[in-house]
Design goal:
Strand content: under 5%
Largest sheet: none
GO cellular component, one term: plasma membrane
Organism: Chromohalobacter canadensis
CATH topology of the largest domain: Receptor-associated Protein
Membrane topology: Multi-pass membrane protein
Shape: flat
Oligomer: single chain
Number of domains: 3
Helix content: over 70%
Subcellular location: Cell membrane
Protein name: Tight adherence protein B
Distance between the termini: 55 Å
């Protein structure tokens, strides 16, 4: 009776995922069949307002990692993922199904966070060069907005993609500094907030924007130099942390290859299984603590 109840539960979960996938696909098809409103292109209209719904929050979360999707493509992707998970829940054992769900959620989140950090690093590296080109435009008498617009086409991705979103908001009535603040909040990039503050001060109170941007470029260069020096000074610490994290895994793999009966005996006993799970928990918690320590450096 218990086995039948567990099997029925997993079937209900799988069917729920399949129904959710079908509903998402139907919603996507219905949205695609509706006429588009006049005005700005779909790509520009989609990324204007802050997140107000779960769909927009998901789009912003993916955009923070450099993945730019339309709502329709996002819905179709989620529907396909739910369908695959439903099939895997039916085919795999219950225990492995839980591991699969946890692995997909955790692995996907870690991958997106890694892409977001990489995107921020690339933007920080491109921003000083862009500002220097902007200063040249301002020195020949161009206005800040015209110089900003002309430099978009001369920039390389991913900076160009971010600047295009800012300019799309400007064409729809948002101030230039407000668009930069929106991108700073979305990408968690404080440098854009400082640039927005400089533009806002110049717009409201006047003054020399070239002097402000010149000092800002110098500050960005100094920060980048400081990051490189800190990375070089902490290289030994980071390598030590990697070795400490890998050694238990290598020892466990060596024991599994040379003496598999030892781990098999532990796994089939209650106390041995508890010890293995405890070792895994300590390993994961230790890796998390060292990761947080390295991020704080």
């Amino acid at each position: 009776m218990t086995l039948w109840s567990s099997t029925s539960l997993w079937w209900w979960i799988a069917m729920t995922l399949l129904l959710a996938a079908a509903g998402l696909i139907w919603t996507s098809a219905r949205t695609a069949s509706m006429p588009r409103e006049a005005g700005a292109p779909r790509r520009q209209r989609r990324r204007i307002a802050p997140s107000e719904s779960l769909l927009e929050w998901t789009l912003d979360y993916l955009l923070r990692a450099g993945i730019q999707l339309t709502p329709r493509r996002l819905v179709i992707t989620v529907a396909l993922v739910l369908g695959v998970l439903a099939v895997m829940l039916v085919l795999l054992d219950q225990r492995w199904s839980l591991y699969l769900l946890a692995g997909v959620l955790l692995g996907g989140n870690l991958l997106l966070q890694w892409r977001a950090r990489r995107l921020r690093s690339r933007l920080r590296a491109q921003l000083p060069g862009y500002l220097e080109q902007l200063l040249r435009e301002l020195s020949v008498g161009a206005s800040p907005e015209s110089a900003f617009k002309r430099q978009i086409a001369r920039s390389a991705p991913p900076l160009r993609n971010m600047l295009e979103r800012v300019w799309a908001r400007r064409e729809l009535g948002m101030e230039l500094h407000e668009g930069l603040v929106r991108e700073s909040t979305l990408l968690k990039l404080n440098e854009l907030a400082l640039l927005a503050t400089a533009l806002e001060v110049n717009q409201r109170h006047g003054g020399s924007l070239r002097d402000i941007l010149s000092s800002f470029v110098t500050l960005l260069r100094q920060q980048e130099r400081g990051r490189r020096e800190l990375k070089a000074l902490t290289g030994e610490t980071r390598f030590t942390a990697m070795v400490l994290a890998i050694i238990p895994v290598l020892i466990g793999g060596y024991i599994l290859i040379t003496n598999p009966d030892f781990l098999s005996t532990m796994w089939h006993s209650a106390d041995g299984r508890t010890a293995l799970w405890l070792a895994l928990g300590l390993e994961l918690s230790g890796c998390f603590v060292m990761w947080r320590m390295l991020r704080a450096i």
